[in-house]
Amino acid sequence: MSEIRIKGRGVYCGIAEGEALVTKTTFPGYGGIDPETGNIIDKFHELYGMNIVNKILVIRGAKGSSGWASTFHMARILGTAPAGIIFTKMTSKICLGIVAMKKPAITDLDTDPFEIIETGDYVILDGNKGEITVIN
Amino acid sequence: MLAGDFGAAKQKAIEFIFEYGTALNAPYLVPVSSVAGGLDTSKYSHNYYKKYGMDALFSEFNLNSSEKVEIPMVEVQTVTTISLTDIEQSDEIGVDKEIHDYCVVSEEYSKAKGMHCLFTCAPYHSGLIPTFGEHLAWMESSAVIIANSLFGARTNTESLESAGASSLSGRTPYWGLHCPENRYATHRFQIDCTVEHDRDWGLLGYLIGEIAQENIPVITGLEYRPTFDELKHFGASAASSGGVELYHIVGITPEAHTMEMALGGQKPKEIIHISEKDIKSVYKKLNTQVESDDVDYIVLGCPHYSLNQVQELIWLLNGRVVNPSVEMWVYVPYTIKLMCERQGYAQTLKKSGVRLLADTCAVVGNLAPEGTRYVATNAAKQAHYLPSVMNVQCFYGSTEDCVEAALSGKWKGGF
């Protein structure tokens, strides 16, 4: 077992940990995630059929409808939100999703997270310090 | 405002905008003169409203505040985005009474707060045309890309939460596309084939969205000048497959008189050539999930149709009646529906067996005739979302292909 640390900028404060769900692509929101179950329902996305509940999403950013934030907002209310988000491309869309979801998030990383984190790795995300610990 | 001198709702609104701006790392806030947003349209909203009331619904979903505050009149000109039904036809299109009632209440609520009830993804078809350089806080990804690219206005893609907070606070973070230095193209797309009708504009947009993601494309090599409706389809597609919020076309869009102007004097990070083969691959992608050539339901009007598009449809139908096994539903803004009635288009469509619907859309309202399995559409955006949202199979093609399918009940489109 090894531990790797990545530094970045905390976008939303708080500490979260959980299993990573990784995609280098932009992530769907409205019409792509079912907030009732947390399932990824976007049939065109490579993670179709996976589930986001309590995961640490490691993603490029957000795509699609301006309802992205509403979907993650609803996921918070229904208890299906991911535990936290690590992402590489800041847009208003992903930022609003994070603020509406009120979960820790980090961006502006000093290392490419896709080189280090794989789906299933255990990740600790510290939004206060802007620090990620990857255990694999 | 932050101190609460203007009331609890404006305090919550500016707190949210501050939180949003801080998360973006924005240096300061900027005043906005127009907001496009709306009330929650999820299938949970009517229960939430019934349990807690409209002010609580607005507080939670439009201000991100779980504490209920009393909502005042909007501070800034605000128009509403797509709704869940056409309240004049809810019964006929199978909308639950609870959702219909919620839409009636939310319309009254929106009007009482001073919002303009356009209920459209295409507010520009109802007279909302921003000026060059104007700062906006708009939702609807297809409208955002038009506002930025064709009108030269400045908006990021906002959400229910931020649009609600901007409508009460009059501010948005000065970040992203509000800053002139962030509006230059980063990726050049050279089109090496002919893009000549609505089908191809949707495919090209979808392809460029997939490649560009959230970057800013500049497009070169077009053989002719696209129409506004073609660019509307192009932009909606690029904002569905990716996250494009602004593009430039040299000689056509206002921030791209020249290539140098579009790129801000920099070199593009990438030059991507687009061939007919590339466009055809997107056609296949959007059509691969179909196991039969039967068509049950045809969706037109995404983004909401213009009056010209309705007229074109009438010309293509040429008085013929759709096959009894098929339903064709055309989605328009309410203002266009009124114009269709004045022009006689609404009556002509009715005679052809075509349903004209205002205020809503197939994806957002989850609207389809009962038992629908196979959908055909001329909108790449609908072809992208419908298989996931409604668990149907989808054909994508030109308006002519869709009309042909409406008459015969069979899909005969191809590339």
What can be said about this structure in brief?
Helix content of chain A is 18%, strand content 37%.
Task: Reconstruct the topology from this structure.
The complex is a heterodimer of chains A (136) and B (415).
Chain A: E1 3-7, E2 9-12, E3 15-27, E4 33-34, E5 39-40, E6 56-62, H1 68-78, E7 84-87, H2 92-101, E8 105-107, H3 113-116, E9 122-126, E10 131-135
Parallel strand pairs in A: 3-6, 6-7, 7-8
Antiparallel strand pairs in A: 1-10, 2-8, 3-9, 4-5, 9-10
Helix pairs in contact in A: 1-2
Chain B: H1 8-24, E1 29-31, E2 34-37, H2 45-52, H3 54-63, E3 78-80, H4 97-112, E4 136-138, H5 141-149, H6 160-169, E5 171-173, E6 187-191, H7 198-212, E7 217-220, H8 228-241, E8 248-249, H9 259-263, E9 270-274, H10 276-287, E10 297-300, H11 307-317, E11 327-332, H12 334-343, H13 345-351, E12 354-358, H14 362-365, E13 374-377, H15 380-389, E14 393-396, H16 399-408
Parallel strand pairs in B: 2-3, 2-4, 6-7, 6-9, 7-8, 10-11, 10-13, 11-12, 13-14
Antiparallel strand pairs in B: 1-5
Helix pairs in contact in B: 1-6, 2-3, 3-6, 5-8, 7-8, 7-10, 8-15
DSSP, total strands of chain B: 14
**CATH level 4 superfamily of chain A:** Phosphohistidine domain
- Report the span from N to C terminus of chain B: 57 Å
The number of helical segments of chain A is 3
Order of helices and strands of chain A: EEEEEEHEHEHEE
Domains of chain B, number: 3
Task: Give me the strand/helix succession of chain B.
Answer: HEEHHEHEHHEEHEHEHEHEHEHHEHEHEH
Account of the 3D structure:
Chain A is of the alpha/beta class and 136 residues long. Chain A is 18% helix and 37% strand. Chain A has an eight-stranded mixed β-sheet. In chain A, strands 4-5 form a two-stranded antiparallel ribbon. In chain A, helix 1 runs parallel beside helix 2 (92-101). Chain A starts with a strand and ends with a strand. The model of chain A has no long low-confidence stretch (mean pLDDT 96). In chain B, the strands form four sheets. In chain B, strands 12-11-10-13-14 form a five-stranded parallel β-sheet, sandwiched between helices. Chain B starts with 7 loop residues before the first helix and ends in a 7-residue tail after the last helix. At the A-B interface, strand 2, strand 6, helix 1 and helix 2 of A face helix 1, helix 6, helix 8 and helix 15 of B.
